[in-house]
Amino acid sequence: MRLDLSGKIALITGGSRGIGRETSLLLSQAGARVIINYNRSKEEAERIRDEMVRRAAEAEIFQADIAKPQEVKALFEHISKTCKRLDILVNNAGVLKDTLLLSMELSDWDKVHDLNLRGAFLCTKFAVEMMLPHHSGKIINIASIGAIKGGRGQTNYAAAKGGLISFTRACADELSGKGIQVNAILPGMIVTEMSSRVRKRAGESILKNIPSGRFGEPIDVANLVVFLASDKADYITGQSIVVDGGLSIS
Ligand code: NAP
């Protein structure tokens, strides 16, 4: 089966590092024109953009803090102006602010919600406005098994990602009749900077609970994103698909 995204325009938030980077690369390899959003990692964004352009792929980068509504608005104004349409949105940008419940400050809660949940809501709203006239679009939200498994020190993150899963279902219900599919991916322990602290601290014991016997790689998640972004997934919507090597069922 060949997944062909030629002629499609895709936005990946937090698309220059980790899971987002691999997703940007794979969407580009499948033929999509990619817009790589970054916040702080300008050099990484430029590097990946240059790599794509060298392969004669269409790619551009755009700085925006997805936790800031004005910056999200500017990002979508830019896309409207330069691309005129948007076919694929990957709400990938995410952040952790782990601490036990009793030491969690409101600011720790807000920081995680403002990006992981509110940011996804804002991007989705702008994206849907652009998708509706074409009666087609794919939105893929990167949630986490933290939403279904819990996790010490992650009440803020689990709630935000759980919210993202519920948001996905409700969006899918509203939008499937309008040609737009919305799905969520729940990665387990994936080898990126985000998981490095916990892998260092508890990696061995976590590994024992992963039936597949290894941590996930960003490509494990990116493969599913590309499938869900393709027309092969036209009949799949509102779903939350776990990519964790079996961690959540062990
Ligand atoms: P990562 O390596 O830490 O990368 C995080 C990405 O989010 C970076 O590209 C970063 O961009 C971007 N980002 C952070 N704050 C941002 C902001 N305010 N505005 C825009 N972008 C922002 O993390 P990752 O592991 O690839 O995580 C990607 C997604 O997968 C997240 O939603 C995360 O919650 C989820 N996830 C990860 C794991 C895992 O084990 N790694 C497991 C479950 C779910 P800049 O560097 O440019 O700021």
Gyration radius from CA atoms, angstroms = 17 Å
Shape field:
globular
How many separate helices? 8
Instruction: Please bin the fraction of helical residues.
Output: 40-55%
Do you know the CATH architecture?
3-Layer(aba) Sandwich
Bound ligands, each once: NADP nicotinamide-adenine-dinucleotide phosphate
Main features:
single chain, about 250 residues, alpha/beta, Rossmann fold, seven-stranded parallel sheet, 8 helices, 7 strands, binds NADP nicotinamide-adenine-dinucleotide phosphate
Give me a quick take on this structure.
This protein is α/β, with parallel strands linked by helices.
Structure write-up:
The chain has 8 helices and 7 strands. By secondary structure, the protein is α/β, with parallel strands linked by helices. It has a single domain, classed as NAD(P)-binding Rossmann-like Domain (Rossmann fold, 3-Layer(aba) Sandwich), CATH 3.40.50.720. The model has no long low-confidence stretch (mean pLDDT 97). The structure holds NADP nicotinamide-adenine-dinucleotide phosphate (NAP). NADP nicotinamide-adenine-dinucleotide phosphate is lined by residues 13-14, 16-20, 37-41, 65-67, 92-95, 115, 142, 144, 187, 189-190, 192-195.
